[in-house]
């Protein structure tokens, strides 16, 4: 691969990135670390690379000539091989001999790319990588790169980013303005149904776009990557998992439900397929804080990483979408330190528990006379039997109230406020 051609492509990339308008996102990068960005397809990994380049130039006095961006899906790089990688360094040094910042998109297209990435890290270069989930996954990427890179999970837009992208103010003063507050509530309903994939925001046909993204994740990141022959089985399994949102489900139950339709499936295959869906960042799970280790692993609650994709499986299941969007916000912040609470001994049944903030959260579309006793009763029962919890919250679709009962305070928080906390 000719170094002069690479230099020309790098210069073109510098010009393109300079002129891109990007929504600020809440991600921080340490200057001393190298990163590989992972997450669901189309969640904004490449755009975050561009933002990192802009910040280096605008905030740290890096010159544009130091930014070395290459997208290995560029047809001009077709046939690029590992032996060509050193020419990237030659091309970069043609532009400047100052320190370089390497940003590589879809680097998995180079067979053996890990060797080059490790060499750059060993030489003290600053490197940022993204790749298709079909070959570059956060669960094994750190090991494959010899511990020289940090995996950073990139989620779809959170609600604040979603509002920013739609040019809707959402600071404290904006929440007090009647018109603006109404806009925020309306957009919260849109976000609830269609999720936060960045490219979907301004599209009129969001459902068709989300269908295409799901098919890409399903086929490329699950079926092709894992060489699955029985496509129908895993398709049915994912549908069954969508039906279980809000509920605890065991491997045994999922196996039983799928086997009733496709009797050739094995229990081990079901466990593997669930892992594949997790590795593709399609789903995640929470575990019972009160359970023993083996029970935690075998009886989780599953959620989807984007509400828009989950909603493809539904006709009208707003309560499930509400719980899923709450799960997404909490999972993006706390990852594996998010749990649910279920105790046969005390009868406690709580949707979410965050040990870090000592907070227990119930989710209810509305707290009416029928559900009020159940939701509040569960939280009070928890507070009486579990001294570690200090904050009791019920996330609702639109209700807001402070309830004082039995010496305990329970906050009812509407969805839009919870998402902006």
TrEMBL record:
Residue ranges of every copy of the AAA domain listed in the record: 35-163
Coiled coil spans: none
Tell me which UniProt keywords the record has, alphabetically. ATP-binding, Nucleotide-binding
| Listed InterPro entries | AAA_14, DUF4143, P-loop_NTPase
DUF4143 domain location: 221-362
Under the GO molecular function aspect, what terms does this record hold?
Answer: ATP binding
Protein name (database record) = ATP-binding protein
């Amino acid at each position: 691969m000719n170094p002069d051609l690479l230099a020309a492509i790098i210069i073109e990339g510098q010009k393109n990135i300079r002129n891109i308008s990007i929504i600020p996102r809440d991600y921080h990068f340490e200057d001393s670390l190298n990163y590989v960005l992972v997450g669901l397809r189309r969640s904004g990994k490449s755009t975050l690379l561009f933002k990192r380049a802009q910040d280096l130039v605008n905030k740290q006095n890096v010159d544009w000539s130091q930014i070395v961006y290459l997208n290995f899906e560029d047809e001009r790089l077709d046939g690029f091989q590992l032996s060509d990688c050193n020419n990237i360094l030659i091309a970069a040094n043609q532009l400047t001999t100052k320190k370089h910042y390497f940003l590589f998109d879809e680097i998995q297209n180079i067979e053996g790319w890990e060797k080059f990435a490790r060499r750059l890290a060993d030489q003290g270069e600053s490197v940022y990588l993204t790749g298709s989930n079909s070959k570059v996954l956060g669960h094994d990427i750190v090991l494959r790169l010899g511990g020289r890179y940090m995996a950073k999970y990139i989620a779809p837009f959170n609600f604040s980013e979603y509002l920013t992208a739609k040019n809707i103010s959402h600071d404290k003063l904006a929440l007090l303005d009647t018109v603006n507050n109404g806009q925020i509530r309306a957009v919260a309903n849109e976000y609830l149904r269609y999720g936060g994939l960045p490219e979907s925001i301004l599209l009129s046909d969001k459902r068709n776009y989300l269908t295409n993204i799901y098919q890409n994740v399903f086929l490329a990141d699950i079926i092709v990557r894992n060489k699955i022959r029985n496509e129908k089985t895993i398709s049915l399994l994912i549908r069954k998992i969508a039906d279980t949102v809000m509920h605890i489900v065991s491997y045994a139950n999922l196996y039983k439900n799928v086997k009733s339709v496709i009797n050739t499936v094995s229990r081990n295959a079901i466990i593997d397929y669930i892992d594949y869906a997790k590795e593709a960042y399609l789903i995640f799970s929470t575990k019972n804080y009160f359970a023993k280790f083996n029970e935690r692993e075998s009886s989780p609650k599953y959620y989807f990483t984007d509400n828009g994709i989950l909603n493809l499986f539904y006709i009208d299941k707003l309560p499930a979408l509400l719980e899923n969007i709450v799960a997404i916000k909490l999972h993006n912040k706390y990852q594996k330190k998010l749990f649910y609470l279920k105790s046969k001994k005390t009868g406690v049944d709580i949707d979410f528990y965050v040990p870090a903030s000592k907070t227990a959260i119930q989710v209810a579309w509305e707290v009416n006379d029928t559900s009020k006793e159940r939701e509040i009763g569960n939280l009070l029962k928890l507070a009486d039997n579990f001294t570690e919890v200090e904050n009791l919250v019920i996330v609702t679709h639109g209700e807001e109230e402070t309830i004082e009962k039995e010496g305990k305070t329970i906050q009812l928080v509407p969805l839009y406020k919870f998402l902006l906390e």
